[in-house]
Automatic annotation (TrEMBL):
Chain ranges of the AD domain: 25-118
Entry keyword Amino-acid biosynthesis: no
The protein's name in its UniProt record: AD domain-containing protein
Keyword field: Coiled coil
Pfam families: AD
Matching PANTHER family: LSM12 HOMOLOG
InterPro entries per UniProt: AD, Lsm12-like, LSM12_ABD
Coiled coil: 29-60
Organism: Sphaeroforma arctica JP610
């Protein structure tokens, strides 16, 4: 049951022992450091996905691919799985690589993202 806090006038303990000396539990500093390091690494990974030298549309193509496949920027080229290279202007015809299955998959994602962009 939920009670609106504006309806509460006061609180009193009706039974049991009164709690008089509450001390906070100590922090596990090793765990805090691990969580901090993990958060910093995640922020660095996310920052590496942003390329300031490309348009917002080009960045959205990269973002769409990176949702399902590991990829990275190499100057203005997008490298997918270290085997597929996508060069500007980032159309399905601008993809090259040896793995035909992965090449077709990347081309499909690019085609879908470009079609989505034209519908806006």
């Amino acid at each position: 049951m939920m009670i609106n806090s504006r309806c509460i006038k006061g609180i009193s303990i009706l039974g049991g022992e009164a709690i008089s000396n509450l001390e906070p539990t100590p922090l596990n500093m090793d765990r805090v450091k691990q969580r901090y390091a993990k958060a910093v690494n995640k922020a660095k990974e996310e920052a590496a996905k942003i390329n300031k030298n490309v348009s917002q549309e080009d960045q959205s193509i990269f973002n769409a691919i990176s949702k399902t496949l590991p990829c990275a920027w190499d100057d203005r080229n997008i490298i997918v799985l270290d085997t597929i290279t996508i060069t500007p202007p980032y159309t399905p015809d601008d993809c090259s690589g040896d793995n035909i299955y992965m090449l077709q998959r990347v081309q499909k994602v690019i085609g879908h993202e470009r079609a989505k962009g034209f519908q806006k």
